[in-house]
Each structure stands twice: as C-alpha cells, then as structure tokens.
Write a structure and sequence with these properties.
The chain folds into 4 domains: about 120 residues, Udp-n-acetylmuramoylalanyl-d-glutamate--2,6- Diaminopimelate Ligase, Chain: A, domain 1 (3-Layer(aba) Sandwich); about 100 residues, Haem-degrading domain (Beta-Lactamase); about 170 residues, Alpha-Beta Plaits; about 100 residues, PucR C-terminal helix-turn-helix domain (Arc Repressor Mutant, subunit A). α3 links the parallel β3 and β4. It has 21 helices and 13 strands. The chain is elongated and about 110 Å long. It has about 550 residues and is an alpha+beta fold. The longest helix has about 35 residues. The strands form 3 sheets. Strands 1-5-4-3-2 form a 5-stranded mixed sheet.
C-alpha cells in the first residue's frame, strides 16, 4: 500500500518543518516517489505520482508564470507540492492557493528549514520496503498455488487457501449460483449462505468477483465476501486461485494399471482423431485383448451413483473398484472390450459382439453381469448403462462413446424413480426432462437459463413479486389464459397485466411458439438445478 500525501505529512521528519496545509484537496493521493527540484520546467521530467519538494524559485516570477508552473505540475499528475519558505519565498502569494485549489493540487508550506534529503530517504525507505513486501507476497502466492496444482488439491482446499491469505470469506459458485465450496472468515457459514442466490445475483462485477474456467468456457465465479477496499493483493490471490481451480477441473485424476492406461489411451486416440486408420486401430485393440474377428462393436457407458466421499484417496479406491468390477463382469459373460475410466466413477467401453450373436440378448447378458458386479463395490447405490449405435468400424464406435455417456447419465436419474431398472438403455428410452438433467450442469446450459430468466428473477427479488410462478403456470397450461386465471384465482384483466409485465421485463412475445419453448426449457433447467441442490444439501 503506497503512502498518501497525508501519510507523508504525518512523518516526524516532515512535522519538524512545521508544515502548513495551504490547499487541502486530495490529501489521500498515493505518493509513488519524492522529487526535489526548483526548475520551472520540471514537469517534463515527471511521470506522475511524485511528491514535489521545492524552495519555491519557480514561484517567484509573475502571476502568469506561477499559474503555468502549477498547471504543468497538475497535468503531469504530481501527488502534491511542498514548498519550503525562506529567503527565496518568504510567503506564498494568494495566486498559488487560488490556482492550486482550482486544480485540486495539494500544497503544503514548510515554515522551518528542512533537509529535503531526509524527507526523500524516509519516504523512499517506506516505498521500497512496501514494494519488497509486495514482491514477497506475490512469490508466496505463486509458490502456494503452484504446489496446490501439482498435488491436485481439492476445490475446498484451494478456496480455503485463498481465504486464509486474504483473511476474508471466499465463495466458489457455478453459473447457476450454487455454492461449490466456501470458507467463512469473521462470520458464520450460515450467515454467508443465507439467501445466497439472491445476494449473488445482485452482486456487481468488480475487483472482488473473478470468473473461473477457460476464457470461452467459464463454469463458475470466485467471490470475495469482504467489506474492505480493493487491493492489488486481493485481486492477485483471487485470480491465482481461479487459475488453480481451472486446472483442477481440467486434469484427469484417474490413474490405474498400465494395461488399463493403454486401453484408455487407445480410446482417447480414436475419439480425438489421433488414430485415423481402421486397420491400425484394430491392430492396437487386438493387442490389448479385444476380439476383432467377425465382430460388431457397440459403445457402452457405465454410470454409477455412489455415496458422497470427501476423502480423495477413498474416491480413487472406489473408482478403481468400479473398473475392476466392470472387468470382472466382462469376464463372467465371456465378452471382450476396451475400457476407459472417465471422470468420477464412470467407465466407457467399446464392446465386441460376434456377428452371429443376437445383439440384444448379448447386451442383456453382458450388462446384467456388469451391473451385478459393480453393485458389490462399497458405496455404490445405483448403476445404469447407456448403449450407443452398433457399427462395423472401431473408429466410428469410439466416436459414439460420448452419446452412450449421455444416455447413461440420463438413465441413472430415471433409474432413481423406477422400481424395475433396465439392464441397459438406448437413446429412445430417455425423455426431455431426463435429457435436461444430463446437461443441466454444463456452463453453456446454465448460461442459457440465466440469460432467459435472470431479468425476471431480479424483478421478483427487488419487488417481492412472483411473476416467475405466473410464467411457469402460463406455460404449464400451454397459454390457456382462462384456465390460468382460474388456477391463480384472479381476474382476467389482472392476469393480462401480469403477462404484459413479463413480456416487457423479458422483451419477449408470449404468443410466439419459440419464445415459449425457450422459456419453458429454461424453467425446467432451473427446476432440475434446484432439485440437484436440494439432494446435495440432504
């Protein structure tokens, strides 16, 4: 933190000169350096932020030259002017105070002879020490967050480290304003989280809010909850923590045996186009145990719902157990496949099925065996398997793994409400709400929902209104205003007024089919996000 002009005036070496504040404007200006000169043209040598010390020779000319001198200092951005009164300038003329006051330039008169070198040494000593402290702090921040990145620290630890460095509460939220991690300082966690969504929505973008994620794929915000003034240190810590959080999400933490790594590597190469020749792909797959003779290939994804586990080692142990169980299930069903451990407890798979075999019967046998084994893994509650389209090409099948993963995640949410879950699911088995539940956490989807509804949500918050509920019910009854008025127990004119307000706030036409579809989809995403949060809170 740089000294201000007022701070310099409070120094003993300056007080000894019996300072008189002639013009008190902007005494809080920061002092970057101290410069001593009596030259009338000194402004040409300045870069801004200097505190000028002078015996006043440049003020002994005409009023016109005095005004030009003061104007040049103000234009150069000096922090203030200190004039030592003496033989050259026994007193400051009224034009000095008048001009400086108009320019907002602080002017101080010293009534006793003072060694300027003592003032410069005292001020520069503080400035250099402050600069050194800032460099040391920057080095500490860099080393601390680099170490967290190297050992792949958890989100909560990264947020806690930032809070410790700033001695302030720090919150990490996603684009739907759900808190992912929080460290409270000088207050309680419950106090920070009270009405958090409302508080967060109304926060202005400023020095204490930093976006998290790659520039084109933001997925969250890091927020400093502090009443303190903005400082370069606070911004530095928040930005470095955001970078570490971004790396945390990008790094694949799963590490298994060499054979599994090789299978994962082959699948990754095929998916990302590093293997373009079908024969090369089949050769590498055969070497890794996949039966490639007279076979069809089917993409599968095994998704698991498991008990929450805060210990990182335990999570990795469970992930390894899921992969082991999948491999064992394959062995029991006498099938061959390439497997790839993905994020969390999901496993991707390219399954080989003999062309002579019945596809559905084989899938039912293989998937049932895999599910039975995975359910034995400690902490696993539910298992769902998504199946993509079969193909004769190994490369084409690998590229369909993403679709199988989508189906598996949707199917997992459908399984939770089903008494008789299926051994596998295809794309035709999932519905719109299930599909939205799959993608609700994608930054782009959250951003879409926020763009569609944020203006209305802010209006409801500020005016204690409930227009969002009116919009929801309007869409639920497919725009039937008569039915909606009955449901809300209000008159039709009152309903028309509410709908008109919604249209003005959102800048939409509620009679337009595409607008209705967009708004209904955004509300479904918001419902699913809230439902996900409530399940997490429980």
């Amino acid at each position: 933190m740089l000294l201000s002009v007022a701070d310099v005036l409070a120094m003993p070496v300056v007080r000894a000169g019996e300072p008189e504040v002639v013009v008190a404007a902007a005494l809080d200006r920061p002092v970057r350096w101290v410069h001593v000169s009596d030259l009338p043209e000194v402004a040409e040598l300045l870069v801004g932020g200097e505190l000028m010390l002078t015996t006043g020779l440049a003020l002994t000319g005409s009023d016109e030259s005095t005004v030009m001198y003061l104007n040049s200092l103000a234009a150069a951005g000096v922090a203030g002017l200190v004039v030592e009164l003496g033989e050259a300038v026994p007193r400051l003329s009224p034009i000095v105070a008048e001009t400086a006051d108009a320019l907002g330039l602080p002017v101080i008169a010293l009534h006793r002879i003072t060694r300027f070198v003592e003032i410069t040494e005292a001020v520069h000593r503080v400035i250099v020490a402050d600069q050194y402290a800032e460099l040391e702090f920057a080095r500490t921040v860099h080393e601390t967050f680099t170490e967290l990145s190297v050992r792949r620290a958890a989100l909560a630890e990264i947020v806690e480290t930032a809070a410790d460095m700033l001695d302030s509460s720090v919150v990490l939220e996603d684009l739907a304003h759900r808190v992912l991690a929080l460290t409270a300082r000088h207050t309680s966690t419950s106090a920070i989280l009270e009405n958090w969504e409302t508080t967060s929505r109304l926060l202005p973008e400023g020095w204490d809010v930093v976006q998290v994620g790659p520039h084109t794929q933001r997925w969250g915000r890091l927020i400093l909850r502090s009443s303190g003034l903005a400082t370069p240190r606070a911004r530095m810590v928040l930005e470095r923590a955001a970078q570490t959080l971004t790396l945390h999400r990008m790094i694949d933490k799963d590490r298994f045996g060499l054979h599994r790594q090789a299978q994962t590597g082959l699948i990754d190469d095929m998916v990302n186009g590093r293997v373009l020749d079908e024969r090369d792909a089949q050769a590498r797959a055969a070497a890794l145990g996949l039966s490639t003779r007279r076979a069809h290939y089917v993409p599968l994804a095994i998704d698991v719902a498991a008990l929450a586990e805060s210990d990182q080692v335990a999570r990795q142990r469970r992930s390894a157990g899921v992969v082991d169980a999948v491999t064992h299930g394959l062995g029991l069903s006498k099938a061959t496949a390439l497997t790839a451990a993905e994020h969390g407890d999901r496993v991707g798979m390219v399954l080989a099925i003999p062309r002579s075999a019945d596809l559905d019967d084989t899938l039912r046998t293989v998937c049932s065996a895999i599910i039975a084994e995975v359910r034995r893994v400690e902490g696993v509650r539910r298992v769902a398997i998504g199946v993509g389209a079969q193909a004769d090409s190994l490369l084409d099948t690998a590229r369909e793994l993403a679709q199988a993963a989508h189906i598996a995640e949707v199917a997992l949410s459908l399984d939770a409400a089903s008494d008789r879950p299926r051994p596998f699911y295809r794309s035709g088995d999932i519905r719109l709400r299930g599909l939205l539940s799959l993608i609700r956490n994608e930054p782009g989807v959250q951003s879409f929902a926020e763009t569609e509804l944020s203006a209305l949500l802010r209006y409801d918050i500020r005016h204690a209104a409930d227009l969002t509920r009116t919009l929801r019910q309007f869409l639920d009854v497919a725009g039937n205003k008569t039915e909606l008025a009955k449901r809300l127990n209000i008159s039709r004119p009152t309903l028309y007024d509410r709908l008109a307000r919604i249209e003005r706030i959102l800048h939409v036409d509620l009679e337009d089919g595409e607008s209705r579809t967009s708004l209904h989809t955004a509300l479904l995403i918001r419902d699913l996000t809230a439902d996900s949060k409530s399940r997490t809170d429980r």
